[in-house]
Please model this.
Amino acid sequence: MSSTASTPDALTRDALTVLQPGFGGTTAPDWLLRHIGEGLAAVGLFGRNVETPEQVAALTAQLRAEREDLIVAIDEESGDVTRLEVRTGSSFPGNHALGAVDDTALTRGVAAELGRRLAECGVTFNWAPSADVNSDPDNPVIGVRSFGADPDLVARHTAAYVEGLQSSGVAACAKHFPGHGDTAVDSHHAVPHIGVDADVLGARELAPFRAAIAAGTQAVMSAHISVPALDAAYPATLSRRILTDLLRGELGFDGLIVTDGIEMQAISSTYGIERGTVLAIAAGCDAICVGGGLHDELTVRRLRDALVAAVRAGELPEERLADAAARVRALAHWTSVSGAAGRSGGVPDTEIGLRAARRALTVTHSETYAGPLTSAPYVAAFTPVANIAVGDETPWGVAAELGRRLPGTETGSFTGADAGREALAAAGDRRIVAVVRDAHRHPWMTAAVDHLLAARPDTVVVEMGVPQAKPTGALHIATHGAARVCGIAAAETITGALRVPGSEA
Model:
């Protein structure tokens, strides 16, 4: 156990309790352990904290030696956004793939197995699922993180995910309230705006959150988005109208409200993280997520001190901070009891992620399709800039799995106006497998594929993003996500291990 020089007063403890900070390294730093002893009730894990499941389990045990009911959170959506498997790619397809299958029992089972693995590692709170309706196909940050564009589909799968995850003792967190799907801006960089009226919001954006609440989600995450139909002055994270009047009052949610990362530019560049934290708690948030970017002791102290100062200055009612801290402690109790049950039970289903990825494939072929590849191809990956939520650490594509199946497979990554010409030159005489991600959002990518197909009509095209563009290529495979298992399923199809519908293969 760590020791402290003095015992913090109740106000300071409450200010620490509402923070969910990150930290650096794969073991807990001394400053973090000290703050847990002083009242910190939650920590967040990111890819930088993860090496192996065994290491994560040792880390969470180290943390809980300071506080038995400590909430250990992680941003593990699976699919494209994975922290637990950041270096290998996820064993589970993401939401868009599950929505493409549209089997709620499968979604529930995938979430339950994910929850079981998280619980085994000592993680008790997952900042997932994304309950956003991807109504704008050009959305730069949601995309395959969403179950789809239909509100009813997203609602039923959000509920199934919440039920499955929480059946394993891991608290779910429906995000990003009141809905981040109809945005053309990434809130990591600026404030997105949703310009539709309240009726559209109620029927479309709010439907999955109603379903999540009905399914018993323990938490909801706020979005740093401007929704003038609901509040013309403040983004949702800082809006009492949206969080207290709408989410608490009209929708009846009584669980924990946590912010998206408070250091994201939508908040930090406009209000600053200290002022943003105070305004978020005043608006109805109960917990402040911070650590995706800023993850040091100074950040924790700055936010703690800002909350204490705001209460003492009369800018933040002390009872509001106390209520927020009480909700955090209530979730800590739930995770302590339910997390222990999750770690001690559950039958592993280690293949459910791959089965789901196989079912999610949409495969089409042209008359030029000549059957499965039997010799080593050239894999041309047309690589867009990754959004911050996904990151660029996690491998994606089909080259690694094709290399295992067809030794000698070569690959290259291409981007920009000359990508098609460069890929064609690099491939030589080999069959080409072109791998794209959201080709509909990147004209250079579409042009590159067109260039390949004009010269080599037998090219195989694998779309690992949202499949909005018309299928092209001798064989076209839409995986609905770039998780490792999606790449495996695509490679199985390319090499004939999975039958291509309507072909002689």
Notes: The two ends are 62 Å apart (CA to CA).
